[in-house]
Each structure stands twice: as C-alpha cells, then as structure tokens.
Design goal:
Elements: H1 6-18, E1 25-29, E2 39-40, E3 45-46, H2 52-64, E4 69-73, H3 82-90, H4 99-104, E5 111-113, H5 123-130, E6 137-138, E7 142-144, E8 155-163, E9 169-177, H6 184-187, H7 189-192, E10 196-198, H8 201-207, H9 210-216
Parallel strand pairs: 1-4, 4-5, 5-6
Antiparallel strand pairs: 2-3, 7-10, 8-9
C-alpha cells in the first residue's frame, strides 16, 4: 500500500487543478460530392443548401474562435455533381489538378479519408485525382490484390503545434486512420474486382495496435 501525507496530497491536487490545458477543435467535412459552388446545376439555380464556398466561410469562422484546430475530410469528394461527372469523362493528365482539390487545397486540411464514392470512376482516375491534393490521404482496409499490402497509407501520426491555456506552445501527436465499407466491392465491382480486396473494418482495426502505430509513425 502506498501512503501519501496530507501535505503531499494537497500539493498534487493543487498542481492538477492549476495545470494548463490544451483544447483542440476537430473540424470535419464530408460528402462534398464535388459541390464546390453554391449552385444547383440540376435546377440551374443558386442554393444555400450546399457548396464548399459556403462551408469555407464557416471553417474560417470556427478556426478564428479557438487557439487550436485541425480540419479533416471524411470522403465522397470527387463524385456527385455534374462537375464530378465532367472531370471523370474529360480525364486527368499528369500534372492536372482536379477542381475539387484546387478548392480544398486552399483550406489547409490535415488529412483526408477515402469514401465509397471515390471509386465510382475507377482506380486510375482516383489515383490521378489524389495526386493533386496537397494533404495526405489514409485508408487501412483496401488491399492491393497483387501485393497483398495496403493500397493506400493506412494511418498517419502528425506532429501538430498547439497552444495551451497559459499561452505555451506544445507538440501534440495526432493519429489518423481511415476505412471504407467493404460493400464497395459490390457497388463498384466493375472497377475493383481483381484489383483490390477490402477487409472487414472491425477486424482490420483490431490488427492495428495503437502502441505499435506510435512506434512506427
């Protein structure tokens, strides 16, 4: 049994109460579906319901409210509007940047996750599109059928500078990991069959031990 004196215990409690804290705001966009402008092309009319141009204003407002924040995207970016369909039909040459990423690159994303709709136009187009992103992407459960290894970066550990409540700067290690539903093998069978396999999310997650990620990150 470990015994503490009353004086030591009071000192520990006081230190805990007075300790500086770090608050971190995590912001996420999802299902942008290549809607960059606040315009509904199907109705040929402006809209207030969607558009990254509107979301960007909210992101900047949210950032200005706090000392520390990170911005992530949860996928379904390159498909879902006439812009997405047009770019898929037009194709991307080496060095081309998809309009979606021209917009997203201005917002300082920390990381992106692949959504199921990223595979609607095939793997070749997806890889060319991702090359234009100025932020990294993660996915842990899509496996290259030829190599048996993850096709994308499974996870990332990023060193992020943050400021505590006393105004002191610290480095916070933030881990990011991403998954897609295995059902993409059915939904996009024509694009994926024979090229990739997709592991069960729960089983795949259990194989990635957090302590191990810290050692390898």
């Amino acid at each position: 049994m470990i015994k503490f004196s009353a004086t030591l215990l009071a000192t520990l409690i006081a230190a805990s109460v007075n300790a500086a804290t770090v608050d971190l705001r995590i912001m996420e966009t999802t299902d942008l579906h290549s809607n960059m402008m606040d315009f509904d092309y199907y109705k040929d009319a402006a809209t207030e319901k969607f558009g990254l141009v509107r979301t960007a204003t909210l992101i900047e407002q949210a950032r200005a409210e706090v000392k520390n924040s990170v911005l992530v995207d949860n996928g379904d970016v390159i498909q879902g509007s006439p812009l997405g369909d047009y770019m898929a039909a037009k194709g991307l040459k080496e060095g081309d940047v998809h309009p979606v990423y021209k917009a997203m690159n201005t917002l300082n994303y920390a990381v992106g996750n692949l959504g199921n709709h990223e595979f609607n136009y095939g793997l070749d187009f997806l890889h060319k599109a991702l090359a234009g992103a100025k932020f990294p992407y993660v996915n842990a459960n899509i496996i290259d059928a030829k190599t048996g290894k993850p096709m994308f970066t499974p996870y990332l550990i990023q060193d992020t500078r943050v400021m505590d409540s006393d105004g002191q700067s610290h480095t916070l290690r933030i881990g990011y990991i991403g998954f897609v539903p295995p059902q993409i093998m059915t939904w996009d069978k024509a694009n994926l069959n024979g090229k990739v396999t997709v592991n069960d999310i729960t089983e795949n997650r259990a194989q990635i031990y957090p302590g191990d990620a810290g050692e390898r990150g």
